[in-house]
């Protein structure tokens, strides 16, 4: 009998393919012992050259780990990307730009060269990073390091410690950085307190992380500043975009050009052996191996990044995607009405005026290009339906740019008499917040969390607009019940004799899902809703309609029925109804035919919706 381990490893490969790929990278590259440990900071020579960890975190928070992904090492220059993000967050873009450029220098990380206006080229080289730490120091003074440590901890999703030995070692030998710092002081990029700023910088470089931490930090950048593991919004999407931009152009120093050409992901390396790479809206990658190449980048880490990008064609400029796929359904309400059952004259209006309500159901993360396509599609057709429903219940995200285009289109439509109804998003959802933020005056804009409620509201507008409500029956006689169509007056009178009048208050539950189905109801006045226990509405019924009628063929209730308003109805016990039908087989035939017609109409409605969605 093979052991469990054998069965598990020789099973159907329960591991996700990406886990297997990362493990194969680790297996292939761990034997590459080229490169050298960093030795200009003596303590770094104590690193274990065999250490090799890989971690990848997805923007929905899944963490892949292989090898020494939990081995701690000092973050070193990887910290620069996150401290730059913190500086943008803390003192604002203008202040940062006044002290630090964003141009690649094409030189090594410890280059002393400054720009023609005596500023560091960018925040990824030591000069720029020391200037960044100086900006935090200007605000916090001695508390600056704690703010840095706390922010990097938010990116990693846990509290981070410092390797005091590495901090002491770099403090003792960091004379080149001292020269850079005093040069910055000379040009007033740094203010007073140069030694304090240097100590902040040395301490931030000595913060201990793991490959897993780096992957979470990178994934936070990939996820518009939200840590996908903790859910914390660490920095704004605006700050993320600027941070990733500088990582793209300068994160790998004088290897940056080759890096973007070959790998195509914003990245940052460190002499401790770490590399982070972030693929926006997809993933964050963290690798650790302390053997460095001539550019002071981790040899094995580079290979992992290059292999991942090449194998899955992940270059960030290789953006596929057909904007037209953002529309999953585009239809009017002919045959696809809401779940509110309408009285015959109301339904006639909807059948006649179905083209007055258009529904477009959207899908996927929407952006500038996809919303532009939606607006062009709306513009390319003649002015059509006065009621336009845009449903977002399959849309997890929309960018501000997309929302801006949408808002402008809604305003234009409003000016031409079209009311736009947005459905499928709660008022608390980020998608609604992004859209609403772009709409100055919500003229001719309505919002419903559920598409069905939006369609019902639009139907009500049409019925009202074409005089339907003037004929709406407040009460209905038993003879008008759809289930009893074609029965003679004395036949319905006999059924009324067998029924009991009932009254219910608004909000009262009349029928309970799962209970025995031992009666059916004829609605005389008021409105009721048929709902699943989950709260999903299946139908809303008005006077002249029946509910609980499935008791004729089912033993237990399949849904709840709630009184939306005060309700008057007749309750007919199913046994009495069965006895009556047994005594009057002809009548029974009529009733069963009516029931079949009712069920057929519901089936047609359901099929139309399924057909519509499967057609896209
Ligand atoms: N590239 C690096 O990781 C350099 C960081 C190191 N603390 C230094 O300033 O030299």
UniProtKB/TrEMBL annotation:
Domain STAS positions: 347-458
GO MF annotation list: glutaminase activity
Protein residues bound to substrate: 77, 126, 170, 177, 201, 253, 271
NCBIfam families: Gln_ase
Source organism of this protein record: Bradyrhizobium brasilense
Domain Cyclic nucleotide-binding: 483-577
Name assigned to this protein: Glutaminase
EC number(s) on file: 3.5.1.2
Family: Belongs to the glutaminase family.
